[in-house]
Write a structure and sequence with these properties.
The chain is mainly β. It has helices at residues 97-109, 127-135, and strands spanning 15-19, 32-36, 42-49, 55-65, 71-74, 79-84, 86-93, 114-117, 120-124, 139-146. The protein folds into 2 domains: 9-84, Urease metallochaperone UreE, N-terminal domain (HSP40/DNAj peptide-binding domain, Sandwich), CATH 2.60.260; 86-146, Alpha-Beta Plaits. The protein is built from 2 helices and 10 strands; from the N terminus they run E-E-E-E-E-E-E-H-E-E-H-E.
Length: 188
């Protein structure tokens, strides 16, 4: 949302909390909705435009990851539901289930946000990713649709220490990590 510097945000209803999809206390019908793109669902402080035309202010103490179906609770108790906004995506189709799994594996190795369903994968539009997928034999089409990728559990939690990709893997007695072709054995 493009904001005017002279906008008085103190007039906007404020978000006081978040109810997660499926939590107790979610009202049957939300007062309104807000459509957010995948990259917009992690926010700390932001004015949001509701689908009904109003505006609210989200002002969390720390960045908060929102999911489709979550509810923002306003000061007056009204609940605003999070929806997935339409985005420019690639729809990836495979020859069969094994090929789809292979394509998902390649995307995961590149940390690409993916929405996986039977018969297809959706990813944010990217020419390099498109080329890779086509070279792997996928049928790829540009589409515009809501995007709700799988949560990245590796990056959505904190361990209280710096991030290293292989921090939970055990080295073998030769000092090798899983994935090394010589893991678990040594050649004379």
């Amino acid at each position: 949302m493009k904001l005017n510097i002279q906008t008085d945000f103190t007039k906007f209803p404020r978000v006081t909390s978040v109810l997660r999809r499926g939590d107790h206390g979610i009202s049957a019908q939300p007062a309104d909705r807000v459509a957010l793109a995948h990259g917009e669902r992690r926010l700390r402080r932001r004015a949001l435009v509701l689908t009904g035309g109003g505006q609210i202010l989200a002002d969390f103490t720390e960045p908060t990851l929102l999911a489709v179906g979550d509810r923002l609770v306003l000061e007056d108790g009204r609940q605003i539901e999070i929806e997935a906004a339409e985005e420019e995506l690639l729809e990836v189709r495979a020859r069969d289930g094994a090929h789809l799994a292979e394509l998902a594996w390649h995307l995961g190795g590149r940390h690409v946000a993916t929405a996986i369903s039977p018969g297809r994968i959706l990813v944010l539009r990217d020419d390099g990713i498109r080329t890779m997928l086509e070279e792997l034999g996928a049928t790829v089409a540009a589409v515009r649709a809501p995007f709700e990728p799988l949560r990245d559990t590796h990056h959505d939690h904190h361990h209280g220490h710096e991030h290293r990709h292989h921090e939970h893997w055990e080295r073998d007695r030769y000092g090798r990590l899983p994935g090394d072709p010589h893991y678990g054995h040594n050649h004379p």
